[in-house]
Amino acid sequence: MADKDRAKPAGEEGAAKRTEALRGLKGIWLLASCAGVLCVAMALICALFWSAAWAGVFAALAAALLLASNLWFRERVTSPILGLGDTARRIAEGSYGTLAERLYDDEIGALTDAINDMSVKIGKADKVQNEFISSVSHELRTPLTAITGWSETLLYDQALQGDSRRGLEIIAREAGRLTGMVEELLEFTRMRDGRFTLNLEQVDVAQLMEEVCFTYSELLRHDGLELRYSAPDKPLPFVTGDPQRIKQVVLNILDNAGKYGRGGRSVEVSVSQEGEYVRIAVRDHGKGVAEADLPHVKERFYKGQGKERGSGIGLAVCDEIVTRHSGKLIVANAPGGGALVTVLLPVETQ
Q: Do 336 and 212 lie in a common domain?
């Protein structure tokens, strides 16, 4: 009696598996395949032992089943999977919360539900992360402002000398570095939650670059680097953009050139027209960017292999600003060594 009771659930389980095997896409495909094989077999039997006419009928049925099954496969499997692939790519590019349309109640529909659920959960996690970064960044601003202000005030005291002065200078410098990171984080969160805006106007890029290079050359000189600016040979067309944001991008690139190009003696900056773009190029003579890092340097929070480490979002912010200007930010290694960062801004009015 006990053996029968144990055998019954096993039999029911086997029946359930067989029933499941006939459901959904796999069941339809199995039935279509069996029907096709049966038609081919009947065509062969008829051709060998019966009537050539009936053999032709079954052969035609087999061909029709093959054509119909392929058309069905394209409509029910291939097309939905291609659509899911497009949705997955958009999610991978940062469009968290994007949902795919559920077309059918089958295995593809279940896959669609799984991808949609993943997208929603990633979107929620990304929102929590951005809110956390924004909250922490705001909380850090007040103590950093106090540290920076008091350290600069104490440095005016000439009685402070020796190790005490050097230690205070380190405090002031590191507080300034932290303040820059916090500002980058705040800028990043503004971009992510839609509070980032551009004040568009006609911008004279050549004049803007002259002002930036004149201002930044003294800062680079303190690091032992000479800034060499090559003015354009002919007047450049204006671009439509936000001058403060463009200046922010250039200053960030120059800051990186000063940080990573200390092995060289100069930083070279040029402005020119390249087809339908105004081209800004900044080249340092440092060690350049590791080949493994080049595809990822514009990704947010990416830390490269170099000894110098930052917040990991400076270039990500720059790339976002340039993209919103319908431009391109290209990071590469220059021939002969050093990094070459190129900004392309379209001439056409946006």
A: yes
What is the distance between the alpha carbons of residues 298 and 329, in angstroms, rounded to a whole number?
9
Alpha-carbon gap, residue 52 to 57, rounded angstroms:
9
Same domain, 74 and 211: no
Range of the domain at 210: 201-346
pTM of the model: 0.60
Question: What interhelical angle do 107-155 and 79-92 show, nearest 10?
Answer: 10
Q: Which of 192, 217, 240 is the last residue of a domain?
A: 192
In-domain check, residue 102: no
Beta strands in 238-276 (DSSP E): 239-241, 266-274
Instruction: For residues 83 and 148, state if they share a domain.
Output: no
Both structure tokens of 283: 């080249």
Q: Are residues 233 and 339 in the same domain?
A: yes
Task: Determine contact, residues 267/227, Cβ cutoff 8 Å.
Answer: yes
Q: Where are the beta strands (DSSP E) in 244-350?
A: 266-274, 277-284, 328-333, 339-346
Shared domain for 336 and 274, answered yes or no, is: yes
Q: Is residue 268 in some structural domain?
A: yes
Domain count, the chain: 3
Within-domain flag for 298: yes
Query: pLDDT by residue for the chain (350 residues), tens digit each?
Result: 444 444 445 555 555 555 555 556 666 666 777 777 777 777 777 777 776 777 777 677 777 777 777 777 777 777 788 888 888 888 887 777 788 888 777 777 888 888 888 888 888 887 787 778 777 777 887 888 888 888 888 888 888 888 888 888 888 888 887 887 788 777 777 777 666 778 889 999 999 999 888 888 877 887 778 888 888 888 889 999 999 889 989 988 988 888 877 766 888 899 999 889 999 999 988 888 888 888 888 877 776 665 555 556 778 888 888 998 999 999 998 888 888 999 999 986 44
Angle between helices 243-260 and 314-324 (to 10 degrees): 150
